Amino acid sequence: MFEKGIGRLKSEMDSIRDNVSEYEKIKKMVFEINELSEEIDSVKSARMALNEGNTKEEKWDASGEIAEKGLLIEKIDGELSKLSKTIRSPLMQLERTAKKYDHIMGSKDRLVDIILNPESLIRSREDYDVLVDKLNDMKDRVNRGEIEVKKNGHVVNTIMDVMASELYQNLESYKKILYDRSIVADELRVLKAVDESAKARRGEIEMGVRSADELKGRLESLEKRYNEVIKF
């Protein structure tokens, strides 16, 4: 009699223990389900924020405009190169004579430097006037024989041609074209920066979609296990 009572009590305790174990298992699953649901909601919210806040930027493809600006810069560079040759060609013929002139004058503002880099060193009308003064002085010194050259007449004529040419106008045109190029280059930098930002945003959204899909799969699997457990 006593042994039967002990056996029955043991059986009831086993049943209670099994029920407690099932309860703990279900409790754990419910906790995991809630946790996953919150995580999915968080990912969805972040994805919605990205979509709403950056829709135009993410969908915008700037590759066409970037290519167009790049071609425009190439065209401008071609114009600058052509104009630079026009500016430098007559001046370069005076390089050797200018070195002799600088040696005689001993000035820090060397004429040969201006001749070799007129686009950078002639920035104003005053700079141009300095060049003209130096060329006139060099011409006079060549005529007086203070500067020895093989062909005096050729050097003098070249100096006269330079001063009679549209050198200053060409330099002004060069500056304007160079300024226009800087504007296009700035626009191109902005376009590239925005395009890179848009690509990064799209990458974030795609990653968010994958994360949400993965979490959703885990949640469905957990809910399926949960439903199977509570049937018993």
TrEMBL record:
Coiled coil: 6-53, 205-232
Keyword line: Coiled coil
Name of this protein: Uncharacterized protein
